[in-house]
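notes to self, project folder thing:

trying the whole complex as one job this time. last attempt i did each chain seperately and stitching them together was a nightmare. two parts in total, labels are on each line so i dont mix them up again. if this works i'll redo the older ones the same way
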Amino acid sequence: MTQLVDRYLLYRIRAKRDAEAFAKIYDRHVESIFRFVVYKLPKKEDAQDVTAEAFTRLWQTIQQPKQITNVRAFLYQIARNLVADFYRKFEQSPIESIDVTFESDNTSNQLYTDKGRHSEQIEARSELSIVLGQLDKLKEDYRDVLALRLIDGLSFQEIGTILGKEAGHARVIYHRGLKAIKQANEPTP
Amino acid sequence: MSHQLLNKIRLIRAVARRTKPDATWILSTRSTLLMQAKNSMPVAAVEKKSVIKEWVKFFAPIFAVNKWVRTPVTAIAVIMLAIFGGSLLSVSAAEKSLPGDLLYSVKLATEQARLAMAKNPQDKVKLKTEFTERRVDEMKQVVTSPEAGRTGRVIQTAEALKRDLHTIKQQLGDMQGQSTPQTVKETAKIVDEKSNAVVQALQESKGGMTPEERIKVTEAQVAASDTSVKAIEVLVDTHKTAGDVVTEQDVADVVKSHNEAVAKTMAQAVGMNPNMVTSTVSMSLPVTNKTMASSTAVAIEQVTEAQKTLTEADQLVAEKKIDEAVEKIKIGTQQAFAAQKTVELNDMQLSSGTSTPATASTSTSSTTEGASSTTSTQNKTTNSNPTTTKTP
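result (full assembly):
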């Protein structure tokens, strides 16, 4: 269904020259793309830059005659490449960056606007850092697949497209990732 | 542990979902992008062609059939269908096939498979008798088909029928040593009944046949009545070993019904034949008709002789000389069919040698059952045939 709406909006842009349709695509995906990159980058501002850049790249691609079958997967793909570019530029590995992310999260609490749930958030975040810390030990592909599947609820087909792999391979990676987390959890009481 | 993991995953999801960018940033980026989009949007009107192209692109993934066709589930389903559904379809199609059809061999093979599944000898015999009934049905259908290759089909059916009847005969013999007298009795009775029915049904199907086809069908009839005689023999044997199971009355009943069936078929065969009746009238006609008349006389002799033998058999049963009665039945049946053959061979020679039979066959009213009585054997009739062929 989401794909169908995206394709319709794409059609509106290309056949009807409807710029509003592009804004709608932005509305639909901006949050999830931001979420996808925010844990990969050291600062929230970097995540905002990367997200904005991803949509600009999407717009450029739409103007070319190239066909886009899945807008959402395409956006994730661009975002992923942009994150890779980001680290290439700074010659920094993404594994180290995760800790930085949480440090920055602690300083700038802009991410969590609901202050009433503060204690719960802290707890959740510590849990998250534990799990993501375990994820750190996994390959980047594993982390992406788990995040895309568990947090954004993408299909394996889409995840496959984003990672440039077959849907079946994405599924295998997902299950291996789950198993790895499980094994990492087991020794701790 | 996995429950713990699940909870953790749920927590991560909840926290992650709450991770949202600033609303102000979203809005500002939105307006920037929108402006960018509006500025870079081409001003020229969209061509109709490209609109259609975009429509196609929009609907294309719906028609991407090969995507789901290539899935393993579809592949397995198709293979299953080909293996099971395909064979079911072809077998059910084969069930309706007739001799000469492409699938007829499949039908016969299916029958063989069913036969192989049968547990005990009596089931096998029963199945086989059922199959002979099928052959008779096929024969009826083949006769109604006006196609050119009909004779071939009739011959094929008759051959299949002969084979089936021969197997039944053998199986009946095999059964004797293996099964209880009760089952032997039941099976033999069924076989006798069915083979008599086969003889009768074949006689009825002869109506629209050419003489050549009739001869083949008569051969099948002979096989059927042989089987019937074999059933009687088996019954008699069982009567000797287990008199309490197979009573004299049982034997007498079977003999009576057999004789009646033979007599009836014989009467129909001779009565049905138009040449036979007219020949007595047209004695003054040229040579062909003369030979025909002589062979008719032979047939009449045979018929009468057969009737006589069969009546004797009935009497012998009444006198409890069962062995002799069975012998008489054998001879009588042979004579009856020999008579039929004589008539049919005569017909064939008429239709192949000269084209006169159509003119001769005008009145078909009376039958020749009670004609003069002179003895003749089957050998004599077969000897008399070459002489008739030489004459035209």
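what i see at first glance: Residues 94-117 of chain A have pLDDT under 50 and may be disordered.
need to look closer tmrw
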